[in-house]
Amino acid sequence: MTTTSTTTTTTAIAPADAAALRAEAQRVLDGNWREGVRRRDGVPFAYTCPSTPRYRHMWHWDSCFHAIARAGLDPVRARAELRTVLRTADPDGFLPHTVFWNHPVGWRRAPFYATRHVLGSTRTETIDPPLLAVAWERVAAVSATDDPGFATEALPLLARHLDWLEHHRDPDGDGLLTILLPDESGVDDSPKYDPVYGRYAHHRMGSFLLIENARRFGWDSRRVIASTDLHVEDVLVTVAYALSLHAMARMTGDEHYARRAARAEQALLDKCLDPGTGLFLDLAGRQEKAVRVSTWTALAPLALPGIPDDVKHRLVEEHVLHPRRYGAAVGIPSVAMEEPSFNPRFDRWRCWRGPSWVNTAWLLVPALRELGFVEAADAIVRGHVTAALRDGLREYYDPRDGAGMAARDFGWSALLVDMVRGDPGRA
């Protein structure tokens, strides 16, 4: 078995600042740690809630990010968190977006969670960007001495999870994964979904009706996809899927996973890459109509090893570094600054309409370094570190001045420690 590939370039941060950031990350992650036994069935759990009081539950990709951030701080809890995520899987490999454990959703919010029933459900029936295999490989790399069995214990269920995604979320077999709701991409209220979902978008009241429609189909995603145009072949979710397939190929030595990852990468190139802009665009509905809104997810294929360097260079030079697009003072904005929808202060359900998020930088900065844009990569990390040391680990930051916004003590912003350490754990 080979371990996850990493970069050895470390952003130049003053030792005192690096120590302060590490201490702050440890404080936030430990403060958000929750463990116990679910009352209704005795199932044990241990996870990091993103931020209290708003985010008390366990979210799939949040927990993956928390475990990666913890890998160099507390590998015991990193392993416990990933084992808890895996414990929520169905036998066929389905993994839920959100699990409620001992904190049921209140009656006011319950109708808007994508659960099987309006009340009484312990989880959602939706997916999240599938990063579990990436996180598992990353944590296994630091567990070889004290828990060597961790590296292989999950492989059968991780395989079933990836197979479930291929069967249920890629019905046309092209390698691109489909989401039913904007929430499944993790970037819920991104403006790229407005022209697709309209009044059913995440931040509009019609989102409840979209959930009810999926309930009527028993959350059978293939039937939902065949019946409506309110779904998206999503670039970010496909990137996460391909990264997990690459991780599985390394962990198992099985080239089957590498071939599946390559098929996803080729589909992104063939179907999503827009020759006019160089961006990777989501495809909406049964007609696979390109969604022409520039958001950071159109840059996400930078993280994939199978995307040609010339395609990546164009993304970086024409978009990431462009001062009117993503070349912001702090971080990488979630929407291109020249887009009419760019509004980093928007916050109805939560904001993917402009502010800079740490997980975005964590995914894309290693690619910048690999392509030779080291100074730009370091500047992005330093901007986030300066903002975090001033305003704390916040949910997101204003790309214009770095002001911390929304939830405080936000768990996945601890990924900054991983970035400063120079070991992003990216496949």
From TrEMBL:
The keyword Hydrolase applies. The keyword Hydrolase applies. Residues 55-413 form the Mannosylglycerate hydrolase MGH1-like glycoside hydrolase domain. It comes from the Bacteria. Keywords: Glycosidase, Hydrolase. Belongs to the glycosyl hydrolase 63 family. This is Mannosylglycerate hydrolase MGH1-like glycoside hydrolase domain-containing protein.
